[in-house]
Amino acid sequence: MRPRIAFIFLVLSALCFGFGPTPVKQDAVSTKVWNAGTSSTAESANMSVVAEMFYGEAPVRFVFCSDSFGISYLPARLPTALAIVDEQIEINAITMGSINSAHAALRTTCPVPNRLVDGSEQYRVHSDENQYFSLPIKAIHEIRDDFGALGWTNIANLYISNGTMGRSGNPWLSVDDLIAVRPLMIGSYDGHQLQQIRFGDYEADATAFGFDSMENGLNVALNPLEIGSLAADIYLGSGRNLSIDANLTDSDRSALLAGYTVYKTDENGSPLTTGKHWSVLADNSWSRSGFVNNMEPNDANAPSNRKVFARRAMREWLYSTTFRSETIMFVVHIAEEADDYDGHYQFMQDFVAEAEAWTEGIAPSFHVFFIINNVHHTGRLNGHEEMENLRIRGQAALDYCSVEPRASFFSIFERMDQVYPTTDEKSGIAGEHARFMQWLADNHYNNWYYGDNIGPVNITDALDNPNGLHPMNADAAAMFADQLKRGLRDAYANCGVP
C-alpha cells in the first residue's frame, strides 16, 4: 500500500509573477458594434508564470476545465492539439476518465455488457435510482452483475499508448518508459457495490477495504458516489495493459469504473519528480456556472441538466489522482457566454475562489489560466456581437489578472488580430473570410508543418459546421494551439523581464 504523500506548502521560487494597474470597473458595453482591428485590449497578462509552469523543471499538473471545446482525447480540441504542436512540454503523467476511443492515450474496453455514463445522460449512475455523479471526467463504465456470468470474469481492460498524442515529434510515452497505474472507482449507490474486484494481481474487497478515500483514508470501502483510487498503485514497468476482473454472483451489483492516472516512474517504481501531469475535466454543453456554483447534482435545487458539481467532488478527484507534490494549474477554456463586463469579471473571481477551496491541503500552490478563443460561443449572437463579447471578456480578464497574481489570461482572439476564422456565411461579417485567408498567408499557415505531418496543412475554414462552435478539424485546432504556444514561448523567453 502506498502512503499518501504529505504535502509541503511552498511557493515555487522559480515562478515569475507579473503585476499591473488597479482595474477600473466600466459599464457593460455589449451593445457596441465590433469593428475588425479596433478596440483591441492587451493580448495577455501574467504570462511569465504560466510559461514557467509549462516549460520549467518543477512538477506541474494541468487541469483543463472546459466544455465541448476541450474533450480530453480529441485531436480537434485545444488540450490535445497543444500537446501535439508543442514538443517542449514534457508530459510524464496523464489522468483520464474511463474512455473507449482509439484517440485516447488511456483506453478502456469492456468485453461484458456495460453502460457508458457521460454527459449525454447527465452522468446518471444506477439508472433505476436516478443518482448523479456530475464531475465532468467525460466517461464512466457502469458494469452490472446481472448478465448471468458466475465466478471471476474479465470485465474491462486498460490499454496505454500514445493515442493521438503520438502525432507529435515528442510523444508522451516511449518504449523505454516505465509506468505505474492508479485505477479510479466511484462508490456504487447504497447496497449496489460489486464486492470483489481485481486489478491485475491486486485484489480489493470493494465493500470492506482496498481503496483510498479522501474522507476515510487507506483501505476503506468507498461511500456512495464518492470517487476514490485503489489503495496501492500498480507498477507495470514496461507493460502497457491492465486487466480488471470481478467475482460475479449474478447479484445485480455494479462496478463504476472512473478512469486512471498513469505516471512514469524510475527503476524503483517511484514517480518522476519532473515533467507535467496532463488532465482534463470537460464534457459537452457545460456552462461556466457549472464549474463555480458548488452544488450537488442530486440536490433538489440542481438544474435539470445536472451539470453541476460540489467542491467535495472536485477535492475527492484531485486527491485521488495526485501521486506527488505538484502545483496545479487550472486552464479554463470554456464558452464565453454572452455577458457584460461585470459578469465576465465575476466569473473569474468566482473560479479563483473555487480553485483555492479545491486545492487546500492537496497541492502546495495553484494558478488559474483563462484562455479566450475566437470561435462562435453563445449560439445566440451574430458575428459582430460575438467578437464584441470576446473583446469585453478580454478587457475584464486584463483588469482582473492585473490585480490577482494567481490568475493569468491569454487571448488567441487578440493574437490573431481579432480575425473571425471562418466563412462570411458562418460569421455573418462580410469580407471576414478574405481577411482570415490573408491572415493565414501573413502568418505562414499556408505552408505550415507540425508534429509528424508529411505535408503542409490546408486550412480554409477553421470552425466546424453549421455554427462554428468548435475547431473544424485537427489542423484547425493545431493552428489555435500554435498561437497559444507562440505566446507561451514569447513569455518564457522574457520571464523576469519587466
In words, what does this structure look like?
The protein is α+β, with helices and mostly antiparallel strands. Helix content is 22%, strand content 24%. The chain has 10 helices and 22 strands. It has a 15-stranded mixed β-sheet that branches. The protein has a 5-stranded antiparallel β-sheet with strand order 4-9-17-11-12, with no helix packed on it. A two-stranded antiparallel sheet has the order 6-7. α6 (383-401) links the parallel β21 (366-372) and β22 (407-411). The longest helix has 20 residues, at 474-493.
Helix-strand category: alpha+beta
* Overall pLDDT confidence: 87
Give the distance, in angstroms, between the N- and C-terminal Cα atoms: 48 Å
Can you count the helices?
10
Number of strands: 22
Helix fraction, binned, reads 10-25%
What is the alpha-carbon Rg in Å? 23 Å
Summarize the structure.
With 498 residues, the chain is α+β, with helices and mostly antiparallel strands.
Fold topology:
Layout: E1 44-45, H1 47-55, E2 60-66, H2 78-85, E3 91-96, E4 106-109, E5 115-117, E6 124-125, E7 131-132, E8 140-144, E9 151-160, E10 178-186, E11 196-199, E12 202-205, E13 211-213, E14 217-220, E15 227-230, E16 234-237, E17 241-248, E18 254-265, E19 276-282, H3 289-292, H4 311-320, E20 327-333, H5 341-359, E21 366-372, H6 383-401, E22 407-411, H7 412-415, H8 424-427, H9 432-442, H10 474-493
Parallel strand pairs: 2-19, 2-20, 3-19, 20-21, 21-22
Antiparallel strand pairs: 1-22, 3-18, 4-9, 5-8, 6-7, 8-18, 9-17, 10-15, 10-16, 10-18, 11-12, 11-17, 13-14, 13-15
Helix pairs in contact: 1-10, 2-10, 4-5, 5-6
